[in-house]
Specification:
globular, 7-stranded antiparallel sheet, about 35% helix, alpha+beta, 3 domains, Serine Threonine Protein Phosphatase 5, Tetratricopeptide repeat, 8-stranded antiparallel sheet
Length: about 675
């Protein structure tokens, strides 16, 4: 219940102000009403587009300055019976359950029943003492207890649902070694909140469901919230779905009694609004304890936000601007459901999004809606091009669908995705329409020529069509782009093709690594392909002649040799990206390649030079590597291979005799 504390004088002032505005507007609508209606219509446009594009299927409620300005249900609560979602639809909250657990814990702290800094063995005498004596309630609430993140209880597959016992669930993981000393770092733990639920039950003598009802739901008036169970008939409960290959399916069964205090609550957007407003006064907690709960206690390094007790603090973007606003809330994810509860206390605004499919763009929706609330520019959702291509194929045929994709792929109104295009192809392949699938996968190789998966998928469709030779070529292309693609290697074996990715003739004492281009740590590199890297046996020993002696072979997906200038840029970018994480000071120069001798023939270019780098791995000093290289063009396959040989030793030293004996394998061009 939201308590009103306005005095009569304040009310009189508001009436006077209202009359003044009314007289000035002379028959026009109140500006505030207009603003609310304008925001509401913009929000409706946003959420409707997300629903139309298959990016949202659920219920929305938006609060602006304490007033509900938008609420709606979109999509279907039950897809088999075509029952629509409404504002009264009940959804699984998943981890949005955790704030409820935190509130109940803090209520017991306020009643002096619990102490945040006491070891949990004080309240759970059966908890393994070695762990229980180290962990406090504060640690559990802030995900700093060292307790395992999840424990896959055997009870999840129990044939009798709703019967899991909390004490037994906790006993299954409580004796496991802690992952770190409590309080030393943050590590999100669902199991930790299950322990909190166990404390609530043990100390109160009541089960979690009863405590939830008596201490939160009845107090706030949340009549559409409760603990989710499999067997009871719960009116207006949404079914959960997942999407695969463009179609929806029923989600997997989850016995919710196995995750008490962690993710077992269901609710509606309207009830979450009641909870939201109850956190602005002492309805649920005295201010002193409310403030402690809603304090930034620990940083979450995964996204740069903070955690309070059961709540997440995130500075979220306002629309598409560079501005942010501090929010308090929580997200939730479980089979068939997604939830995002965002509170903006500075303006008493909030956004509740509950979704009954396993994939939804809730963060993007929240960002756009926040922009609307603060009268800032925001982005409409981009049209998923692959989805509309599928519809075109189904209605007008494969040629029209491919044409539609090509015509719109560069449009700023659409977004393209390798994964979604791949899913589109498999939709037809799984429907035993390999011909259309092959056309979609072929399109994917054209749109994403530097990715390995489109070629792998295209090869699969070609093989289904009996076009084995073409399939082999595409499997090879996939391996060239990703030498770790074991599926493609297995498929080539089935096709009786022995396809090796080793490029160099070298003995087994040299350490081998395979790296795929482009490399994440060297984003400025422009080449595509892969590298076989061979280190001399003692390459890391600064006192040995092998020190920093190595051979690199780059097999590039390019029909022409790269120029010496391109080679220099890419090699310098390679080492800059490799060494930057090891730079403890900006005083070290960037890597530089100096070529002072080149010999060019019709099919190859040999070069000689030196490379200056900062050795961040071993000596912490700047070193100069002598370099010999050879670039070979494979005309038959449209590939280029470059071999680099490095050593800080002079060319006359014995190590170079060994380096010069390492050459490409005879079949390296294939």
């Amino acid at each position: 219940m939201l308590k009103s504390k306005r005095s009569s004088s304040v009310v009189i002032n508001i009436i006077v102000a209202f009359l003044s505005i009314f007289m000035l507007s002379c028959g026009q609508n109140n500006n505030t009403d207009n603003t609310s209606k304008d925001k509401s219509s913009k929000i409706d446009e946003i959420v409707s587009l997300y629903a139309d594009y298959g990016m949202f299927n659920g219920s929305v409620l938006v609060v602006d300055k304490g007033e509900v300005i938008y609420k709606n249900g979109l999509g279907l609560a039950n897809m088999e019976w075509d029952i629509s979602n409404t504002v009264d639809t009940k959804y699984r909250l998943a981890s949005v359950t955790k704030p409820f657990t935190a509130i109940m814990i803090m209520q017991m702290v306020a009643d002096n029943t619990l102490d945040l800094q006491e070891p949990i063995s004080t309240y759970l005498p059966d908890y393994p003492k070695e762990n229980g004596d180290q962990i406090t309630i504060h640690h559990l609430l802030t995900h700093t207890s060292g307790t395992v993140r999840d424990y896959d209880s055997d009870k999840k597959i129990n044939q009798f649902p709703d019967r899991a016992q909390l004490k037994q669930l906790v006993s299954e993981f409580s004796g496991l070694p802690l992952e770190f000393k409590p309080g030393k770092k943050f590590s999100y733990s669902n199991s930790g909140f299950m322990v909190l639920a166990h404390i609530i039950e043990t100390v109160s003598g009541k089960n979690y469901e009863t405590m939830l009802q008596e201490n939160i739901l009845d107090v706030v008036g949340m009549k559409n919230t409760g603990t989710d169970k499999h067997r009871p008939i719960i009116k207006n409960r949404a079914k959960g779905y997942f999407k695969s290959f463009g179609s929806y399916y029923n989600c997997n069964y989850v016995d919710m009694s196995t995750i008490p205090g962690v993710g077992n609550i269901y609710s509606t957007v309207g009830d979450l609004f009641l909870l939201d407003q109850a956190l602005y006064d002492d309805t649920l907690l005295p201010k002193k304890h409310l403030d402690v709960m809603l304090t930034k206690h620990v940083e979450d390094p995964s996204y740069g936000g903070f955690h309070g007790y059961g709540w997440e603090f995130i500075n979220k973007p306002i629309g598409n601007t560079s501005e942010t606003i501090e929010t308090i809330g929580h997200s939730g994810s479980i089979d068939g459901f997604r939830a995002l509860f965002t509170r903006i206390p500075s303006s008493n605004s909030s956004i509740m999004l509950l979704n009954n499919t396993s994939h939804a763009f809730l963060t993007s929706m929240t960002t756009a809606i926040t922009g609307i609330l603060y009268d800032k520019p925001y982005d409409l959702p981009l049209i998923p091009l692959a989805q509309f291509m599928i519809e075109t194929i189904e209605n007008e045929g494969i040629d029209k669908g491919i044409q539609f994709y090509k015509e719109h792929k560069d449009s700023p109104d659409y977004y393209i995705s390798e994964q979604e295009l791949n899913v589109a192809g498999y939709k037809f392949l799984h429907a035993e329409n390999a011909k259309d699938a092959a056309e979609v996968f072929k399109l994917s190789t054209e749109v994403f020529p530097d990715r390995d998966n489109p070629y792998d998928s295209y090869a699969e469709a070609l093989r289904a069509l009996g076009k084995n030779e073409e399939a082999i070529e595409n499997y090879k292309k996939s391996i060239d782009l990703n030498p770790k693609n074991n599926n493609a290697k297995e498929m080539l074996k089935e096709l009786e093709v022995d396809y090796l990715i080793d490029l160099l003739k070298v003995d087994d004492t040299w350490v081998k690594e395979i790296i795929t281009f482009p490399i994440g740590w060297a984003p400025k590199m422009t080449v595509n392909g892969f590298e076989e890297l061979r280190f001399a046996p003692e390459w890391s020993n600064a006192k040995h002649e092998d020190f920093w002696s190595l051979v690199m072979a780059w097999k590039l997906i390019t029909p022409t040799e790269i120029t010496m200038d391109e080679l220099q840029i890419n090699l310098e970018s390679y080492y800059d990206g490799l060494m930057t994480p090891n730079h403890w000071s900006k005083e070290f120069p960037k890597p530089s390649l100096e070529l002072f001798d080149t010999i060019k023939t019709e099919t190859s270019t040999e070069f000689k030079g030196r490379m200056t780098i900062f050795d961040g791995f071993h000596t912490g000093e700047i070193i100069t590597l002598n370099i010999l290289g050879r670039q070979q063009l494979c005309k038959s396959t449209g590939k280029s291979i470059i071999v680099f040989k490095f050593s800080p030793k002079a060319y006359t030293e014995p190590i170079w005799k060994h380096l010069n004996n390492i050459n490409l394998k005879d079949d390296s061009c294939r």
